[in-house]
Amino acid sequence: MAANLARLEAAAWPLFRAGHVPMIGEWVALPVLRSAGADVDDPLAEQVLYPAAARLLARCDAVLRLPGESTGADQDVAIARERGLPVYARIEDVPGVLVGDRA
Asked: Could you state, in order of their start, the residue ranges of all structural domains in the chain?
């Protein structure tokens, strides 16, 4: 999970710089789990991880689906499409994003 999160977080700066507020479900779900005294291996995780992402999607304008296998990301895409939200497959396709520019 840590490696996957690091890959997702690498997209945060280009998105933020473009005027978006990047959001990863785990940024919400993991503190919720910790506050319940649980972690991702706990049975409680099923009641928090995917539901947190679904709740976030109710407030999102679009989804960036980065490459790689992920049941959760596939579920996010399905929810986004059901709600008529744009789904981007490449960060370069997100409006306003300049990849590789740190300034």
From this structure: 2-93
